[in-house]
Specification:
The protein is mainly alpha-helical. About 70% of the residues lie in helices and about 0% in strands. It contains three helices and no strands. Helix 1 packs antiparallel against helix 2. The longest helix has 22 residues. It is elongated.
Length: about 70
Amino acid sequence: MLGEIKELQIAHKYLKCPFFEKKVRGINELKEIYHKVINSASKGRNNEQYSYTKWLTIEKYQQWLL
């Protein structure tokens, strides 16, 4: 749980940075987290080789983004 919250905080920090490269990195971090959340929601249907979240659900991720 703390690792996932930390990932979101780091992505947010990158997004608020005045440098374009850091903003792009923040967007990429959010994209990676999104893929983990999606994999977590459907982990019973695909291989376990994909990384997924343990605590963060689609609803929690959506609320955090808003």
